[in-house]
């Protein structure tokens, strides 16, 4: 049986040297672009960091021990080989940024526990294999941005689009039915699909007054008979490009 790539071995020393100080004083462990194929267990000893970047590697699985990163507010796992996420990810209660874009995640393997991340502001699920979105994501009331682009979605639940603080939703390049069907040219005569008629007794006084006023204006326009246009008269212009003269022979070109 062929073995997969062995990948870079991350030691505790390498991990410690990869810690950066953020502008706000937080500690960021940056292990992106390291050729890692398995989650480095040694970094569990650095579980007090505020940010963890494991993006652009070849990691296939995130262990349930990720829950030990209780201070984590920023987690970037994009561009790996992840096929699922552990349920314990829902215990990262301080997390406000989660990027799991460009992996191999399916709807079935996306844990419902994501809805426990009550402080999440930004969630990127783009470039995966999702064919549905759980309505439970509607519980993320603090969510401001969500990326769903390049998946296999045919709809987005209203519970997600109606999130109270949502400002950006990127769902481009999904096979939505109304986007794949070619739209017919709009015929202005057929634009009105439904005409609602009401009786005068159902209108409030101000609306009734306005309607009567509009009706009177329309009747006035109909009653006006347009006068025939007057034929233009040019009494002084008897010949092309010339003022009239008593004797036409005087202006003719000889």
UniProtKB/TrEMBL annotation:
SMART domains named in the record: LRR_TYP
SUPFAM superfamilies membership: L domain-like (SSF52058)
GO cellular component annotations of the record: cytoplasm
Ranges where the record places region Disordered: 222-254
Record keyword Repeat present: yes
Disease resistance R13L4/SHOC-2-like LRR domain mapped to chain residues: 27-131
Gene3D superfamilies (alphabetical): Ribonuclease Inhibitor
UniProt keywords, alphabetically: Leucine-rich repeat, Repeat
Source taxon at top rank: Eukaryota
Alphabetical list of Pfam families matching this protein: LRR_14
Database matches in PANTHER family: LEUCINE-RICH REPEAT-CONTAINING PROTEIN 18-LIKE, PTHR48051
Name of the protein in question: LRC18 protein
Lineage of source species: Eukaryota, Metazoa, Chordata, Craniata, Vertebrata
């Amino acid at each position: 049986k062929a073995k997969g790539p062995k990948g870079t071995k991350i030691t505790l020393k390498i991990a410690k040297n990869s810690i950066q100080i953020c502008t706000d004083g937080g500690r960021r462990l940056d292990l992106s672009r390291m050729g890692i194929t398995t989650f480095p267990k040694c970094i569990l000893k650095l579980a007090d960091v505020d940010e963890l970047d494991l993006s652009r590697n070849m990691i296939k699985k995130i262990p349930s021990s990720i829950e030990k990163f209780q201070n984590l507010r920023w987690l970037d796992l994009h561009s790996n080989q992840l096929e699922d996420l552990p349920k314990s990810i829902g215990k990262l209660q301080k997390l406000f940024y989660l990027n799991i874009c460009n992996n191999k995640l399916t709807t079935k393997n996306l844990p419902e526990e994501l809805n426990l991340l009550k402080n999440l502001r930004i969630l990127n699920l783009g470039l995966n294999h999702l064919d549905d979105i759980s309505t439970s994501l509607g519980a993320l009331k603090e969510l401001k941005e969500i990326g769903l682009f390049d998946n296999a979605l045919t709809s987005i639940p209203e519970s997600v689009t109606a999130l109270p603080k949502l400002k950006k939703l990127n769902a481009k390049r999904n096979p939505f039915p109304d986007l794949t069907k070619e739209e017919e040219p709009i015929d202005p005569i057929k634009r009105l699909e439904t005409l609602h008629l009401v009786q005068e007794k159902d209108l409030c006084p101000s609306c009734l007054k306005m309607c009567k006023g509009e009706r009177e204006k329309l009747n006035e326009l109909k009653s006006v008979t347009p006068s025939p246009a007057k034929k233009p008269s040019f009494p002084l212009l008897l010949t092309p490009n010339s003022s009239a003269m008593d004797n036409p022979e005087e202006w003719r070109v000889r």
